[in-house]
From TrEMBL:
The gene is trpB. Tetramer of two alpha and two beta chains. The keyword Amino-acid biosynthesis applies. It comes from Kibdelosporangium phytohabitans. This is Tryptophan synthase beta chain. Its EC number is 4.2.1.20.
Amino acid sequence: MSERTRFGRFGGQYVPETLMAALDELQTAWLELREDNGFLDELRARQATFIGRPTPLYHAERLTEHFGGATIHFKREDLCHTGAHKLNNALGQAVLARRMGKKRIIAETGAGQHGVATATVCARFGLPCTVYMGAEDMRRQEVNVRRMRMLGAEVRPVSSGTATLKDATSEAIRDWVTNVRDTHYIIGSVVGPAPYPEMVRELQRVIGDEARHQYLASENTLPDTVVACVGGGSNSIGMFAGFVDDPSVELVGVEAGGLGVETGQHAAATVGGQAGVLHGSFSYILQDQFGQVLPTHSIAAGLDYPGVGPEHAMLAELGRASYVAVNDDEAVAAFKLCTRLEGIMPALETSHAIHHVGELAREMGPGARILLCFSGRGDKDMHTIESVSPTDMPVIGGPQ
Ligand SMILES: Cc1ncc(COP(=O)(O)O)c(C=O)c1O
């Protein structure tokens, strides 16, 4: 196995023999295209007119004031078309798949944001699209299921296991093994066998590159700390990519602590997992003493995955990035706080990172600077928020 497929001791290609030819074909096409000016020009043009890039850098003044500490900025990936960073990757892979002559697209989705992003690019390019989604996630993220169907995608429910992202990913891999000749699998995060983790990072690094440039232009300096939520790890690695070579910038990934890491009901693979193989890659995963993958829990469907991308495992082991876990109830409180103080409703995934940004801001104090990757918008989570804490928020300006 070549060095290119690894991040330190992590990564690799742990897949059935039938997929090796497809991975080689993808690797070759990707390595060629990433140097191809025609491909890069097409991607840049579509990022500008279809996604709406560059997304703004936003000074969260009222949250900064509320925490009374470090200055907080958001990189606004919620303003991407379809409402999250996921479209950066789906668009890039769809352009690649077209150039490879693939006729059909499949994807897995958790929160539905990656499924919607994939269904969107497939509608745009006229490609048939099948999205695998856990039955539990279809219930939690029902609006996104309707969006995918409206866009013309077939959504296939997956009822095995915990009926969440891991199970959907396993089904998508099964489909790919069967239909590998004409089908491209658009993986939604920096997980899976090589070249996916590197390719998805490169398609998401636009977040970090833009953010670094914008931050320097508006603040004349770099942030002290960059924070992002971590499911599989794509918004965070895209953001980190812009700053990983700046030793003064601390990188922090926020995982889903669920009901508390100590309860075992969580999805914090870096904080609470061990090295193992999942979905074709060697990384940190949640597993029992026999190597069986453990069921996970998070209120945020997009974080509810028992593994993390291999590059995160490497960054954690090197100590270049640190990882923390934030619980469901803390994320719900942060969702409400941000919505009311900034008029921006964050995705529940993002809300995990917002809670940690609050803690850090207090700790670091005035004069310090924090940059958050605001990975997506929270409209999709209205149902979930209302079901865990029905209208307990006072009307602004009304009786308190
Ligand atoms: C808004 C949002 N943020 C974060 C994530 C987590 O994924 P990743 O860690 O790949 O960015 C998801 C996944 O669905 C998401 O929808």
